[in-house]
Amino acid sequence: xxxxxxPVLAQDALGEGFKTNPDARMLLQADxxxxxxxxxxxxxxxAVQIExxxxxxxxxxxxxxxxTNRMSASGNVQVVEKDGNTIYTDEMDVTDDxxxxxxxxxxxxxxxxxxxxxxxxxxxxxxxxxxxxxxxxACQACTKNPxxxxxxxxxxxxxxxxxxRKSVRFERGQFELFGMPIAFxxxxxxxxxxxxxxxxxxxxxxxxxxKLGFGVKxxxxxxxxxxxxxxxxxxxxxxxxxxxxxxxxHRLENGSYNLRIAGIHQFKSGDFNSNTIDADNKNxxxxxxxxxxxxxxxxxxxWDVMAQSDKNFSRTYDIEGYSSSTQTSNIYLTGIGERxxxxxxxxxxxxxxxxxSSHENEVDSKQxxxxxxxxxxxxxxxxxxxxxxxxTSNLQVLYRKNQYDNASLVPSTNSFIQRGSDNYRVxxxxxxxxxxxxxxxxxxxxxxxxxxxxxxILALRGDAIGVNSNSIDVTRSQAFRAMATAGMEVRWPILxxxxxxxxxxxxxxxxxxxxxxxxxxxxxxxxxxxxxxDATNLFERDKFSGYDRVExxxxxxxxxxxxxxxxxxxxxxxxxxxxxQLAGRNSFASPDxxxxxxxxxxxxxxxxxxxxxxxxDNEGFSLAGRGRFDRKDFSLxxxxxxxxxxxxxxxxxxxxxxxxxxxxxxxxxxxxxxxLAASARVNENWRVFGGTTYELVSNTLVRASAGLAYDxxxxxxxxxxxxxxxxxxxxxxxxxxxxxxxxxxxxxxxFGSTSNLSKGSxx
Length: 763
Description:
Elements: E1 2-3, E2 8-9, H1 11-14, E3 26-29, E4 32-36, E5 41-52, E6 55-65, E7 70-80, E8 86-95, E9 101-109, E10 115-124, E11 128-137, E12 152-162, E13 167-177, E14 180-191, E15 200-201, E16 205-209, E17 213-225, E18 228-237, E19 241-252, E20 255-265, E21 283-294, E22 299-308, H2 313-316, E23 326-336, E24 340-351, E25 369-379, E26 388-400, E27 431-443, E28 446-447, E29 453-468, E30 478-491, E31 494-497, E32 501-514, E33 554-566, E34 571-583, E35 609-616, E36 621-629, E37 636-646, E38 650-659, E39 671-681, E40 686-695, E41 700-711, E42 715-724, E43 736-745, E44 749-752
Antiparallel strand pairs: 1-4, 2-3, 3-5, 4-5, 5-6, 6-7, 7-8, 8-9, 9-10, 10-11, 11-12, 12-13, 13-14, 15-17, 16-17, 17-18, 18-19, 19-20, 20-21, 21-22, 22-23, 23-24, 24-25, 25-26, 26-27, 27-29, 28-29, 29-30, 30-32, 31-32, 32-33, 33-34, 34-35, 35-36, 36-37, 37-38, 38-39, 39-40, 40-41, 41-42, ...
């Protein structure tokens, strides 16, 4: 008997046993149903589609035997399981609940876009699938030439996919790259491609350093629970022995933390510089922890702390996350309100160096403990006399065992163009010093009928300072500093427009009337040592970078802003101006502990000129320059030019920097540096990149690097080479060389000199 059906509930036709979920119902759709009561079979033919308990089967023909409770499908069979995996085959024989079965000519595509192909497969218990003469890969076949071997694959006589244990085991297999076998795998097991965390061995990592030798890193990952795990590693170095590491990670409802330890018994500690404490230290190690927790939606706290046996163990052995030249330990508490911000930090600085000079042994004792540094900002929610009212507060307490004076101020020879105090040892007084600063500010905008914007500004600041130090540079142990400011800013934005462009010219003038800065040079300056005067801070009310110094006296800032947009896609912006000390003491001409402000361009009553200009288009080109020019003859005192251009396959950038002599800071000669970088995509998968930095005055190649990278949907590879050396006046000019590489097989793992061994679950 035959019947043509529209979609029907076929529970009666195919039997009550077709269930794993007692409430599941099956929906059968086919062009034709044929019942054979004598053979106890039901045959569905023509565009058959069965949906059951989240699974879907599509085939040309499906036959169900009511006596054996087995179902066979043939002709373009496709099964989409409830977990998203898709099975393709010509023939399939399964039980009526999809749990057990046998498949011929099988191809499986997982939700992670990986593929299994096999001559045949058996499924049992609804959990274990055994592929016979199978192939596994995460690569896609070439669309132009499907017969071309994929980039990598694993062939095995048996591939056992255990859905319960979330593992894939390969027996008597081989790893092939570009169709060529490169490794025999008698028995190899890995995590299910859909699993991101599973216990097991991780891919090895590799490293090399002159003093350590060649190193191989082996790691094991324990997935102890969904929210915590442990990674243990051992790195064997040919010169120094075995470095042991362990990292514990724990995620809680409101945050996460980790704990990392590392240690080694060095074979040849004498290979290190004899003047450093690590030379006689055979047993070296460290312990560190990071944490980040939310108290509620606005408040959070955390820490990043590290202690080690000597000053540079972590950098010597490239401990992940702790190998920088300056390691900062920090405990913090932050809060963000709708119109307020709170930031509390405790700091400890550790300079990790292995220089041969004897004074380097004292570096750690000259680094400050900061306990604490507190910043708070409050902006009144409602207007005060029609304007904005804000209160800014800062608390800073520091302790330093030994004074770090100007004689210890060592200019960097590698990266002079970087701003900030990274170029120096940060000088400071010995002992303890504390400062509390609070400033209230009110400002309001008035707009005249012709578009002039007038902004009056009133501010009142107080600093309470206490110093307990025998430093010769500190002459006061207690001080209270008050600063009252009355200011006015006037801006007149003028718009010019045409059918092809828009231009805005904005003359700007500021006037700030203040009392003189008191105690300049008599109290420590810890947080305002970094200072560069340029167009970006021309209109700052206080141009100092921190609270330990404050701008005093009456000062005017004059300048002109410009921005333009052309309909052709070009944009132009610029700013130029000058600053004038009209009355009172010039704070930038008042020396302090580190001579901040000297040779800055602001030390005279009429400052140097500052300017910046930039252009860009909508096709990846930009050019920008900024500079400071002498107030008398317009000679360049400091300047930078940056340019970059991007095409579809190529991007290039260049940077030139110039700084005139600054004898006060130990630079008696001009400094010039040129940096170039480029990246080119050869094709869809390959790219090359490189960069160089050249010190023009001493004709020194300071840094150079080059690299090659490949990436596609299943494989990535990168290799880099870098060289660095010090420029004069440094006497250490021998270059340092390093080579790094990383190979990554998607779903299998990655290895190389930059391997990330804290993630993954391959074994």
